[in-house]
Specification:
By secondary structure, the chain is mainly alpha-helical. The protein folds into two domains: about 10-180, no CATH class; about 185-250, no CATH class. The protein has helices spanning about 10-35, 40-45, 55-60, 75-105, 110-150, 160-180, 180-190, 195-200, 205-220, 225-245, and strands at about 70, 160. The protein has a two-stranded parallel ribbon. The longest helix has about 40 residues, at about 110-150. It is flat and about 70 Å long.
């Protein structure tokens, strides 16, 4: 931080934090209102599209989706509409949310720290959307195909609740986008001196086990889906090793 810059008091920091939170919530609220107004587009063309045969992944892999859904609660469809609008708003507003975080912490950084920190936030945006795309175009249609085809008896017909589908959608898409932020977290912990590149290299065997466990939690499906997810998750770990500084590079 430049010496000529006036130091902010504790209450000034709280005021800045309040402004950051209010602007972030306002952005999400506005985008949520837009999503609410485009209900048919949000559901038919985005959320429910992976459950149809015409979805690009299903068409390319020849996956036949025979999914039927029902609503089991009186206010179920209305609450799902609100929930899905919030999810869409959060995904769209994510770069702006990171920018607000950057704007809040930037005054506390030295000039030499600002450029690397900005790159971290840009990387976070790219990784988040990469995780969203992997979840939406790869994992979600594969898991849907597995579960709609799996039966314990021919007398039991699979009919999914709308709430159950939305739970899987959030798990496969939004949660995976957040999981893809892991390399950025590793880089930040490395800059803080809590971990280093050598330590992460020694922990590769344990990382493989943790990656498999995480993949099993995110994709409660067949082993094939777990393996498909485990590959990019482990690649994220290797990316985190590359981004994590060596001992001599620690701040």
């Amino acid at each position: 931080m430049e010496q000529t810059q006036k130091e902010m008091s504790f209450w000034d920091h709280l005021e800045e934090l309040r402004g950051t939170l209010l602007r972030s919530l306002a952005a999400i609220f506005l985008l949520m209102c837009v999503a609410l107004c485009f209900k048919e587009f949000v559901f038919e063309d985005i959320i429910l599209r992976p459950a149809s045969d015409s979805f690009i992944t299903n068409a390319l892999l020849g996956l036949e989706q025979k999914i039927s859904m029902v609503n089991l609660e009186i206010a179920g469809q209305f609450m799902v509409h609100l929930r899905s609008s919030f999810i869409m708003a959060f995904v769209l507003a994510f770069p702006y949310l990171l920018w607000e975080i950057w704007r809040f912490i930037a005054p506390a950084l030295y000039d030499k720290e600002k450029k690397p920190a900005m790159l971290v936030f840009l990387l976070g945006t790219v990784l988040f959307y990469l995780g969203v795309l992997v979840g939406y175009f790869v994992l979600l249609p594969l898991c849907l195909h597995f579960f709609q085809a799996y039966t314990v008896s021919e007398t039991v017909v699979n009919t999914f609740s709308l709430q159950s589908y939305m739970g899987m959608f959030v798990s496969m898409v939004l949660l995976l986008g957040l999981v893809f932020e892991f390399p950025m977290l590793m880089m930040m912990l490395g800059k803080m001196g809590l971990i280093d590149r050598a330590l992460l290299r020694k922990g590769r065997r344990y990382a493989i086990i943790l990656v498999m466990i995480l993949a099993a939690v995110i994709t409660p499906a067949d082993p094939a889906s777990m393996i498909i997810l485990s590959c990019p998750l482990y690649m994220l770990y290797e990316l985190g090793i590359l981004l994590c500084p060596k001992n001599k590079d620690l701040i």
